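User: I'm curious whether this sequence folds into something compact or stays loose and floppy. Could you predict its structure so I can see for myself?
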Amino acid sequence: MTTRRSLLMLVPALTLAASLSAVTQVSAQGGGLANPAALREQAPATYKARFDTSKGTFVIEVTRAWAPNGADRFFNLVKNGFYDNVRFFRVISGFMVQFGINGDPKISAQWREARIPDDPVKQSNQRGYITYAMAGPNTRTSQVFINFGDNAGLDRQGFSPFGRVISGMDVVDKLNAEYGEGAPRGRGPDQGRLQMEGNAYLQRDFGRMDFVRKATIER
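Assistant: Here's the prediction. I'll summarize afterward.
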């Protein structure tokens, strides 16, 4: 089901030639997100992250033992509001849905190179399991994807799941897939432009794209 081309396109845009001139002027709304190095709280052994979206709600259960580095990063991102108002910018039916580029370009720029070490693959990329996108060894940052089907072929590529959707997978299935693969291979958004222009670009050119209203850690 998953071709080599589609696997390669799981790469986030981590090597943009241009940089934001205002990168040090992070908006006050970003709060702690302005300094990725400061957000290193260790996650609980297991925790749940609730995603309220434009299509409904789904809940992810994270198991830290599966991928400690990934679980800790995700915990800090959700807890500090990184995924709020973030778009599901790459939805490929039968394969996966990808998200995790912040809608504020100033925040996005802070996290683009905030990489975490790889975790060994302990779980398979099955339906409903969530994993980081990456551009090679030790390049995971904030982009993640949820598998729509059995994508076990990703396991040997080093894609390490850190959690799974335990409720609301029907909501994930309904996320708008009309834009499909990203540019230049498909009709979807260009990740470079999304990094540089943020949600303004998506709202203007991809107005029917679904999005996260708010993500929270459930207690």
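Summary: The first strand starts at residue 46 and ends at 53. The chain has six helices and eight strands.
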